[in-house]
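Render this sequence as a predicted structure.
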Amino acid sequence: MLTPPEDTRGGAVGTRSGIIAAMASPLVAALLLSSQAALPPALLAVVPRPVRIERGEGAFVLGPATRLRADASLRRTAELLQEELRRATGWSFPLLDSFAPADPGAPEIRLRIDRSLAGLGSEGYRLTSTPGGVEISAAAAAGAFYGVQTLRQLLPPELLRKAKTPGVRWEIPAVRVEDRPRFSWRGSHLDVARHFMPKRAVLDHIDLMALHKLDVFHWHLTDDQGWRIEIRKYPRLTEVGSRRRESQLGRDEEKGDGTPHGGFYTQDDVREVVRYAAERFVTVVPEIEMPGHAQAILAAYPDLGNTPAPVEVWTRWGISERVLSVDERTIAFLTDVLAEVVDLFPSTYVHVGGDEVPPAEWEASPAARERMREVGARSPEELHSWLMGRVGAFLASKGRRLVGWDEILDGGPPPPGAVVMSWRPAKGGLEAVRAGLDVVMAPTTHTYLDYYQSKEPGEPLAIGGFLPLETVYAFEPVPPELEGGERTSCILGAQAQLWTEFLATPEAVQYMAWPRLAALAEVVWSPRESRDLADFRARLAPHLRRLDALGVRHGS
């Protein structure tokens, strides 16, 4: 994952029909979508683009008398909206229960559950705005939350500022929206091992994900260069493994910057992040790397390695040759760690890495060679597959599913129920789908946001590669080889990757993420047939004002 291509501008996209979950005939949907394109972008610049959106006459104007009304199951979503409206306008926006006496003349924003909308799925919603009020209805709470995200984007961008903004006409254009996502896994990955990100920055990233209807936060917590999560049974993981004495200086592998770097999240921090994300319908998927990318572990517990030679937390980028052993004591360590992880993260999915495992230490280790003979492994790749099977069985015993980068396919079938994250273009995803495995598409060609987004002078140093906005937007998660419908239901969705070797601050992460992550959000949410780069760019211009209001440092 750390070796970028020289240039990825030419990502070809295949054609495919029939994937859109339409809520109207193709003719009606086309008319509604074309009517949106004819409107001034500032009015209906919703990102990602809804399946159907139709402009009405007039607008609903918020005022001091405007109230909120919500079903009990939607109260937290309503409270989040209330907090934002109060901060921006200074008005109170009292929140009423759905069963409170109705006042037909009162201006209201209403959130309600409507089981008749089950055809839109658990994440779909209907939003109706008229001069008299706004109603957001959905079959489930997640859908109502996503309806609120659309409502936030229909309001002036000043809504998103962190302080009251006087002099704004707080109006919502009259519209009718029916919407639902194309994919269930709409992910954003963030590496905090190479450079630690403060908890507040993680929460801010989750807020931005929610605004764009992204729903999986892949939190890369451990690597050669740092261990970032408290494990109480093994305190040296954070006492030793969370700190390195310096970092590589730019691209020069021979030079360090001389500056210590460290940080980790306590278990209370993790619980706070998971709770915060859940309120925004974002699932946090932790990644605990194994058996490679493990030098921070070995710095803390050298007896878990294949050689007694001590190591420090790695100070350079790239792939360390040091890997975990396959001894029973190492497997016990891994299951102990994962036992604490599953107690912290309610996600069905637990990512265990499994990528870029150099074979040299296993090939040279008498213990590893003996283990290969015991389990009938003919190569290091097969030994790796055996280890993933042991870890996968443990996770399954806890009701969880193993997720791994696509190298988990290289030594044989992965554990039952495993999810393959395909980062090597086409290869892993196609192989996994054809084996009937669930897949998340994450190819370097279209989703690695640590690559350069521009060739203009002055761009900050990046790991390499070239991934402009239009290439991200052109991404099609369903490979053209599967156009005939061959097991396409196995493709859960896609996600963007933010590796932080060259992203040392939250501001650097934001700059590389946005607006390219907005383009990826549209890829995984909106119908493929409605995607249009010119239309996206027209909506993006006013959307960048929202990011500005939030104080986000972004590209263009």
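Summary. The two ends are 26 Å apart (CA to CA). Confidence is low (pLDDT under 50) at residues 1-42.
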